[in-house]
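Quick one:
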Amino acid sequence: MTKETKELIYSLDELDRAVTLLKNCMDQCSTFTFTGDLGAGKTTLVKALLRSCGVTDTITSPTFSYVNIYRTADGKTFYHFDLYRVDSLQTFHNLGLDEYLSQDNSWVFIEWPAVIDSLLGDDVCRVELDYKGDKRACRVVVSGEVLTKMEAESGDGWL
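Output:
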């Protein structure tokens, strides 16, 4: 399977650069996973991305509710998952969370996705966050149909 990775190093003051990188993927990809150590900036990045997409509600971490649902004035729906406390794929199914993964006119942002990775397949934008001194590294990995669509739209490379 062919994969392509884009990496951006940014400070919190430059968070909008990371948001722009992800927004460039949203026409071709509706599912984004966010991985990284505790405190790497997963929730901060998702909040900024949701705000840039037009979410005006208070945006909070779904750590205890597993998923928060946000809707914009123009009818878009965003599902923000935090699966840190979900211990198995069976638990994910038992909670009924799998129903949110393929809704029309919606995007899914998943923090701590490892437990459901087998459900997601290759058509996902995988966002990996890491520390780089006082900055963050944001790596976006795309493959499968997402990569094919992005390359077709942009010609040579997807950004």
